[in-house]
UniProtKB/TrEMBL annotation:
Transmembrane segments: 12-34, 73-93, 105-126, 304-324, 345-366, 403-424
Pfam families the UniProt entry points to: BPD_transp_1
Record lineage: Bacteria, Bacillati, Actinomycetota, Actinomycetes, Kitasatosporales
Protein name according to UniProt: Sugar ABC transporter permease
Compartment(s) where it occurs, according to its Swiss-Prot or TrEMBL record: Cell membrane
Organism in which the protein naturally occurs: Streptomyces daliensis
SUPFAM superfamilies reported for this sequence: Cna protein B-type domain, MalF N-terminal region-like, MetI-like
InterPro entries: Ig-like_fold, MetI-like, MetI-like_sf, UgpAE/MalFG_permease
Length: 433
């Protein structure tokens, strides 16, 4: 039987006619832009002066661009690895549950959202204000569950009052207090709106048997009026404030003000100074600065994983469906635990699929731009900078230097090419099996 001859050899003219449109399109959209980028990277900002490799030297010496290179390394190492690991876990754990399909659908849904929309969503999620940012709302809620918040943040005594700052944000009376006279402690600095629901301040009854009593209240009434250091009818009580009796630098007694602002200390507080600890006035916990200099890159990587873990899960689940079940059952019959089956049987059989997912995500993160540009605030954008974003900023931003931008584009291409070559070789080896 004669060997079949390919169309390329038997009828090269016809083959060329079919290939020509694709070749022209490939040349116009791929080859020409690559060639022009290499050419443009050898010229200055205006494009008129030849500078050779000077633009490449600037790429590797400019601190801003070096930060982008460092962040790209973090992205390439962290984002694909975590997304692939999560995809593997989701695919394996949902294989045997009835609601696995619904779970996979939910995890995959972020893939239907554009990078622009995802960036806007996570810019709101990472908002510093807990009333607006979901991440900080959850974080603050957990924090406040285990840690008491301050009673009246920002409250303070009047200048030159008997109660004076004593370091660390606390306030202490200048002189010791004695029973039975009430030791009233006046504070200001609390917005009237925050005391709308507070009870009116009440004059404390004299202490009995050497007890020290008093009232802690907001020495200010809405609309003005009243006398300083005197409890007036319209003035509000400050409930929940801790009052400590201090002698010789040691706390001998403490009490907490009630709803009417009064407190009562035992007789051993007689002759002690009264201190209001700083914990009464500390600003409320406001959560984590997710988009600050130290966390902005991990936070953006988290949003990327939210989008692409579903992609990894779907591909790995497809590979998992093709794993011979008899191999898994044989391992279980031989006494292997589920963890051993997963580690020594499932993962090795899924290695080709895991490699495809990992390499695909590595190429994808090398080009990441949208999420960083949208999520990172202007103040920390330089800390979250990546090469694709720096390419845009160098070419069309304040610098408007398309020579440097083209050099960055060429470097990005050189970084992507080895990964693509490795992937192509792996696919060829797979096809020969």
């Amino acid at each position: 039987m004669p060997a079949r001859v390919s169309v390329m050899r038997s009828r090269p003219g016809i083959a060329a006619c079919f290939l020509l449109p694709a070749l022209l399109l490939l040349g116009a959209l791929v080859v020409y832009p690559i060639g022009y980028s290499v050419y443009r990277s050898l010229f200055d900002a205006s494009g008129s002066g030849f500078v050779g490799l000077e633009n490449y030297g600037e790429v590797f010496t400019d601190s801003t661009i070096l930060t982008a290179v460092k962040n790209n390394v973090i992205w390439v190492v962290a984002a694909p690895s975590i997304a692939t690991a999560l995809g593997l876990i989701f695919a394996v754990l949902t294989e045997r549950v009835r609601w696995g399909t619904a779970f996979k659908l939910i995890v995959f849904m972020p893939m239907a959202i554009s990078m622009l929309a995802a960036g806007i969503i996570f810019r709101l999620v990472y908002e510093q204000n807990p009333d607006r940012g979901v991440a900080n709302a959850v974080w603050v809620g957990v924090h406040d569950t285990f840690t008491d918040s301050s009673a009246w943040p920002g409250a303070r005594p009047r200048p030159n009052a008997e109660l004076a700052p004593s370091g660390g944000g606390s306030f202490t009376t200048k002189s010791p207090v004695t029973a039975p006279g009430p030791a009233d402690l006046a504070l200001v600095g609390v917005p009237p709106a925050e005391t709308e629901g507070a009870a009116p301040a009440k004059k404390a009854a004299p202490g009995k048997g050497g007890e020290v009593t008093g009232t802690v209240w907001l020495d200010f009434s809405k609309g003005g009026g009243g006398k300083p250091d005197v409890i007036d009818a319209k003035e509000k009580a400050l409930a929940g404030i801790t009052v400590e009796a201090v002698k010789g630098g040691e706390v001998v007694a403490s009490a907490t003000t009630g709803d009417d602002g009064t407190y009562r200390l035992p007789a051993k507080a007689d002759g002690a100074q009264l201190r209001l600890p700083a914990a009464n006035f500390a600003a409320p916990y406001n959560g984590v600065d997710w988009l600050g200099p130290s966390l902005v890159t991990p936070s953006i990587i988290g949003s990327y994983i939210w989008m692409w873990a579903g992609f990894a899960m779907v591909l790995i689940a497809a590979g998992l469906a093709g794993v011979p079940r008899e191999l898994l059952e044989a391992a279980r019959v031989d006494g292997a635990s589920e963890w051993q089956v997963f580690r020594k049987v499932t993962v090795p059989l899924l290695a080709p699929v895991l490699a495809v997912v990992l390499v695909t995500l590595m190429i994808n993160v090398l080009k990441i731009f949208d999420l960083v540009y949208i999520i990172a605030p202007g103040a920390t954008q330089k800390d979250a900078n990546v090469l694709a974003l720096q390419l845009y900023l160098s070419s069309f931003g304040g610098g408007a230097n398309q020579g440097v931008g083209s050099a960055i584009a060429v470097i990005l291409l050189l970084l992507v090419v080895p990964v693509m070559v490795m992937n192509v070789r792996r696919l060829r080896r797979e096809s020969r099996r």
